[in-house]
Each structure stands twice: as structure tokens, then as C-alpha cells.
Amino acid sequence: MRRRASLVLLALAVFFAALAPLLRWYAYPRLAKIPPEQYQEMVLEAKDATLLDYTGGMQPKKVDKVTIVQTLKGNVEASKEIEAGAGKDVVVWDTLSYIIGPDGKMVSQIPERYIFDAHTQAPVHATGEMVDGDPVKREGIEFKWPFFTEPRDYLYFDAQTRTSSPMHYVGPRTYRGMEVYLFEQTVPWTKVPMPKKMPIEGIDPTTIEAATGTTLWYTVKARFWVDPVTGAPVNAEQDIQQEMRGGIAASGPDGKLTAFAGHVTMREDYAKYTVDLVSANRTKVLALHTYAPIGLAAGGLVLLGLALWLEARGRRLRDPGPEPEFSA
User: Fold this and answer.
1) Which of 62, 92, 146, 211 is deepest in the core (most CB within 10 A)?
2) Which residue blocks in 166-241 are alpha helix, DSSP H?
């Protein structure tokens, strides 16, 4: 009976030992990916900001708050179409940044289509990749870092300038009890396209520059606190400045008018929700990548030891040893 039990334990030990590397180096690379149907909403705020009053004399004024609602929706049909030609798992995100003034009215809105590898987050170039209707060819990441983010600089795409520049690794930090990496990027003053959707009906932003000589300029210092396991930012802050220069901005100091200036942060309820969501996903990724393989390997060693102990104990009971000799 003990021999049968030891054989069963030995078989289980071999199974666990074989399953551990299979899970880590075969299953994990295939299962750890961004789902194509993901939907997410985020609300950011810039309190005590400066905003150009388009209807009140085209002058900048201080406002209590500017709200930015960002929605992200996975386009499953587009993903399948691109996957057929790319030969790999592809995710298509249709995103929208909707900026709302203190009066609740739209200031501008910027749609994007971001296409990337579901496993590595590397951009995949395909028809439809765009920012505000303009075709783009992204280099580097956007929105999300790769799984198991490394402590190094990454090339990061800025949607306003349609360019990529280094996102510098600053160092490890603790954010709301979570160990994260802090990254920073500074985009210098750059001339950028005006949003195609403006707050004044009938204004065609594509003709403003040609008709009046007015241009839009932008700079930002962005900071992201990133969970290194999932690669998901748990917090983001941006110091954004936008200026109109020349043309209708000629009445401003040095021929400039501030279109927007503010410190953009996550709204508190969304900051808490993001940490909870990333924490849950972090546990799932670690279970597949680390906890389960190590647990299976350790379990296999325990079962192997138990099987050997049962076998050795059974042999001692079956073989009591030589009988003692008695002398007359």
C-alpha cells in the first residue's frame, strides 16, 4: 500500500515539476495580454487653471476648474481585421479626450486611434492609426508600459505634438502603499495643430492659421507613476501650457495669448479606483508569472521528498534485516 502511495506521489511530483516551467515560459507569454474589448473611463482636473475665453473677447482668464474626460474603448472588429494581416495579437483603442470648461461646455475634443501589440505594447502601424483625424505613425509606447516594466527610459508618444521623445526613469516610489516606478517627460515648446473641434460653432480651425496667421504652441511636463508588474499607470500629473501666437493673439503680451495653463491630476475617486483595479490585475499577472510556477515547483519537491520517504520506510518494514545469532 505504501509503495502504491509513493508511486502516486512520485507521479504527481513529476507532473508539478513539468507544469511549473510550462506555465512560466509557455502559458504566461501567451495569456498575459491586453484584452481587445477593454473599456475604461478616466476623469482628470486642472484646478485654478487659466483658460482662453473664446466668447468673451478672446482673453485668458482664471477659472476654478477645467475637466478632462478620457474614454478608452477597445475596437474588437478592427483588432480582428488587423490581426489577420499582422499575424499576432493586436489591440485597437479608440480614445477620446473631452475638455470641459467651468461652465460645463465643451472646450475641445481630441479623438485617437492607437494600435499596438497586445503582449508587448509596441505600436502596430496600420490603416486608421490617427490623432484628431490626422494619420500618424507612432514610435514608442502610449498610455501603458509593457508588462514587467524595466527601470529605464522608454520612448513615449505625445499626442499633441504627434512626436515621440524619451520618458525618463526617475526611480522607485511608493504610491498609496504600492511600489511603483516614477517616469518623467518634458516636451519643449512646439507648434501643434489646432483641435478640429472648437468651442465656437462655425470656426474652421484649419483655416485660422492661413487666414489670420495665428498658431498654437504647446509644452508639457508629464509624470507617471507606473506599476512595474502590469505596466499600468496608477497616477498621472501633467503641467500643460498652450499659447496662441501671432494673428488674433497679437493684442497679448509679446504677441501671445495663453489658451490653457494648468496642473492636471486625476480626480480623487478615479485615483482610488485606478489603484484598486491595477492591484487586482497585478495579482493575476503575478499568479501566472511567479506564484503558480514557484508553488508548483515547491510542491513538486515536497511530493518527491514524501514519495522517497514512504518508499524508504516501506523497504525497512519489508526487510527487517538478518536474524541475530545465538551461541551455546
Assistant:
1) 92
2) 205-212
